[in-house]
Known about the structure:
- The protein is of the alpha+beta class and 195 residues long.
- The N and C termini lie far apart (48 Å).
- The protein is 20% helix and 38% strand.
Amino acid sequence: MSHSARVVARIAAAAALAAWTPALAHAQEMADLFRKVSPSVVLVRTLERGMSPNPAVGLTTIPGLGSGVLISADGKIMTAAHVVQTADRVAVQFVDGKLYPAHVVGSSIRADVALLQLDQFPVALSPAPVGNSDSLDVGDQIIVIGAPYGLDHSLTVGHVSGRILPGLIVSGGPMEMIQTDASINMGNSGGPMFN
C-alpha cells in the first residue's frame, strides 16, 4: 500500500470513529437514563371477578396487567384508568419482584389516567420526577419503560412524532395527546414516557 493510500485509510478510519463517537455517547445516555428511572416503573397487576368465556365455569377471577410509575415518596402511582377501572384487587410489583397492595384514589376514564395509593410499600422508594409535557417538541427523543406482554422493565426508544394540544376536540371534548413512534404493546398501558 502506498503512503498516500495509507494516509487516506487513516483519514477514513478517523472519520468513521468520529461518526461513531456521538452515536456511542448517545446510546450510553439512553442506558444511563434507563438505569436512573427504571426503579420508579412498576407493574400493575389486577384481579377482577367476571364471567368465564366457558359458561360451565360461571364466575371466575380474571387477571389483568399494566404498567405504572411511582410519582411520590408516599406511594402514589400513576397508571391508565382502563388498567384498574373494573379491578376488584390491585397490586403493584416493583423491579425486585415484590408485590404490594394498592387501591385506586381516583381516575378519569375520558383522560385514561388513574392515581393509585400503595397500602404498604418498601421503606426506600425512588419516585420519578414528573415532567412538563409543554416542554416536549415533535422530534424529541423519548424512552418508554413498561411490561409489554408481561416482560417487565422492557425499554423501547422513539421520538415524539405528533401532538394534539389542549383545546382541540377529540372524541367529544378537549384533549391533549402525545403521539410516539416508540413501540408500545399490551402491558405497556399506564407506563411512563421519559425524556
